[in-house]
Here is the input.
Amino acid sequence: MRFQGNAIKYGDNVDTDVIIPARYLNTSDNKELASHCMEDIDKTFVSRVQAGDIMIGGFNFGCGSSREHAPIAIKESGISLVIAKSFARIFYRNAINIGLAILECAEAVEGIAEGDIIEADLDEGVIYNKTTGKSFKTQPFPAFIQKIIANGGLVASIKNGEIK
Here is the structure.
């Protein structure tokens, strides 16, 4: 499983309240959620994100509440992958459940700047910064998690018979 896109970078402790503010949680429309993604931390995010872009975060990305709305808003906005130094546990699991690919790699986060072109190979566990030419090793994604991501999430994987 491979991803390539421009890096959109944030710092440490990006919580679910800034990923998708609570005032928008009264909708179940994923496109509506995406239209407000990151607006309390980055007003320009929705106007500049492109399909396939890769979000970069610091330590404790996705901390705060346990809402699935946060990874849904990120995924629906067009982000294909989130790379962070670390994730809050509930965000990590919610991301997998809804089919958003995520990787932990502190070294890569340090070596990626806003706007860099990033390629990630989840089979090999390699993140390549095409802008700087540097590569970073991380844990490959297990095959069963790759299936969940490829199917669009856990529920879709069960419906498709991928997980029994």
